[in-house]
Amino acid sequence: MVRTALVGLAASTLFSAAHASRTYVYVSNADSQDISAYSLDDASGALSPIQTLNVGGTAMPLALSPNHHRLYVGLRSKPYRAATLAINPLDGHLLPLGDASLPESMAYISTDATGRYLLAASYGGNMLSLSRIDANGIAQAAQQTVPTGPMAHSIRTAPDNQYAFASVLGADAWLRLKLDTERGMLVEDAAPAYSLPAKSGPRHFVFSNNGRFVYLIDELDGKLHVLTFNPSMDKAKPIQTLSILPSDFDKQGKPWGADVHQTPDGKFVYISERTSSTLGGYRVDASTGKLTRFGTWPTEKQPRGFGIDPSGRYLFAVGQLSDHLTVYRIDAKTGALTAVTRVATGKNPNWVESVNFE
Questions:
Q1: How confident is the model at residue 3, as a pLDDT?
Q2: What is the C-alpha to C-alpha distance for residues 97 and 6, in angstroms, rounded to an integer?
């Protein structure tokens, strides 16, 4: 069932006055069951809190609609559901529009390129799901589930929106599924798009901005994989594997890879590693897609998630065990990170999204 908020009220009664900044940052906080919203000073990198919105459940994965007017939140406590929030472009405030049931606790959510479907991956339920998004941008109850191997961890569509790809941590597999946008269905290929070594634990991945490469981080073995991607055939093959661990990692424990993102200009890729509480930076060879590590930075304790703003000037890292967010300025030439501000979040922050409205 979808529970939809009343939307006929005058806009002036729903939103506060326009904020100076038009770039907004959103953090999901699992234990305090809320979303922290901030405005970004584009010149200094300072964050100003603008709202804390309780969502009534364990708030974890976030996803933006393609037009950035909707924020979707995966709630991982029972009843499992996806909440739809409207983003006010004038001041960044969030308005709940409704919530819809999900079949399981979902570790990851994303939308397809059209904004008509919400895709989700369940770590505990060993499945993927697909939900329609209606004409008002509100996610509906899941209409399809696809069984996977153990611990499905993420799902995203390829740049052409013809296929979705999903990492399955316990099966060491990266799956390819045909996305039928007319019928609203996912159809899995018989064989994985990429099979990883045993106990790799593939987790998150991103397609490069030019659509020619995939960057896939493992959770368990401390590795980052580079795959070439053929956009015309939606096929991938591995070309490089690198370490995500800092040079002094040996005595710190087991690798615990988390997140991966690329800057909008395509020059740099960053990762987070939770055991060492570090961020790692890699320079991208534009012609080959291969990576060269150039830096490691200590960050918030247990950085499960981080994000990069749409301009590519700032990186936002949150710590599950610090309950804080640090903003880093990204050097446009070297990719080096410089911490510029730190703000409190809710309890157990784990996901960051940001939007900009011109």
A1: 44
A2: 8
**DSSP labels for 128-188?**
EEEEEE-TTS-EEEEEEEEE-SS-EEEEEE-TTSSEEEEEEGGGTEEEEEEEETTTTEEEE
Q: Is 23 a domain residue?
A: no
| Average pLDDT of the residues in 105-119 | 98
Q: What is the DSSP letter of 216?
A: E
Residue 43 lies in a domain: no
Contact 291, 242 (CB under 8 A): yes
* Residue-number span of the structural domain to which 158 is assigned: 95-356
Report pLDDT for 1: 44
Rounded to the nearest integer, the mean pLDDT of the chain is: 94
Q: In this structure, what CATH number is given to the domain that contains residue 184?
A: 2.130.10.10
Cα–Cα distance measured from residue 165 to residue 121, given in angstroms and rounded to the nearest whole number: 11
Q: Is residue 169 part of a domain?
A: yes
Q: In angstroms, rounded to a whole number, what is the distance separating the alpha carbons of residues 163 and 157?
A: 6
Residue with tokens 């070309």: 239
Q: Distance (Å, rounded) from C-alpha 321 to C-alpha 329?
A: 23
| Cα dihedral 89, 207, 112, 118 sign | negative
Residue 82 lies in a domain: no
CA nearest to 142, candidates 184, 104, 101: 101
> How many separate domains does the chain show?
1
The answer to whether 316 and 298 are in contact (CB under 8 A) is no
CB atoms within 10 A of CB 54: 13
CB 294 within 8 A of CB 333: no
pLDDT tens-digit profile of 269-284?
999 999 999 999 999 9
Place of tokens 């368990």: 220
